[in-house]
Amino acid sequence: MFRPVAVAWRDYVPQPARNGLSNFTGNLEEPAVMVNYFLQGDPYQGMVHFTRFFLNTILGMGGFIDVAGMANPKLQRTEPHRFGSTLGHYGVGYGPYVQLPFYGSFTLRDDGGDMADGLYPVLSWLTWPMSVGKWTLEGIETRAQLLDSMVCCVSRPILILWCAKRTSSVMISSLMAANSNRRKIRTRKRFRMI
Question: Family per UniProt (predicted)?
């Protein structure tokens, strides 16, 4: 269903525009990432994300240009550190797992944490239509990046990417396993950095 939109996005939107929009939506999340690192007791990474937000907002035209990442390799863009991972840092379990149409996987810790992230400054200033626009841009860009992929993937918060030749029961168990592995890998990466 979303494939034609992603194909048009990939084929007709110039790569610099796609990069700029991706940088902009990522820059909106930097204050939340910064606060989550501080909550985990990692002030160094918190200040890295403060610096990224400050430089990209002031010098990078509101975040459309990743000035911080170009200026210093230590300031490269990384996977957003959300409140769900902060809860995981303190031993909170994932809670129930649900696979929702047009949303993807849902766990109480991770998606409840995403809702908490929306309360931080910058993200909390977005109106509902602006938030939907941000999610839509992120979903279309993610789907466009995965067009040539043969792997079953979930792109939160909007899209579920279905593999064509799978039965629904196999698909759901595959998605659950993929999401579980993705979370474990993210957690391992974070603990190595600390």
Answer: Belongs to the MlaA family.
Whose tokens are 């993937």? That residue is: 153
Residues 52, 75: contact at Cβ < 8 Å? yes
pLDDT digits (tens, 9 = 90+) for 109-139: 988 888 888 888 888 888 999 999 998 999 8
68 residue type, one letter: A
Q: What is the pLDDT of residue 57?
A: 96
In the predicted model, what is the mean pLDDT of residues 13-18? 95
Specify which residues 97 forms β-bridges with: 107
Cross-strand pairs, 161: 153
Tokens of 126: 């977005």
* Rounded-to-integer distance, Cα 58 and Cα 102, Å: 35
Task: With a cut of 90, say whether residue 192 has pLDDT above it.
Answer: no
Among 25, 28, 75, 26, residue whose Cα is nearest residue 51 = 75
d(CA 52, CA 74): 10
Given a cut of 80, whether residue 70 has pLDDT beyond it is yes
> Mind giving me the DSSP string for the chain?
--HHHHHHHHHHS-HHHHHHHHHHHHHHHHHHHHHHHHHTT-HHHHHHHHHHHHHHHHTTGGGTS-HHHHH-GGG-------HHHHHHHTT-----EEEETTTEEEEHHHHHHHHHHTTSTTGGGS-HHHHHHHHHHHHHHHHHHTTT--S-EEETTTEEE--TT--HHHHHHHHHHHHHHHHHHHHHHHHHH-
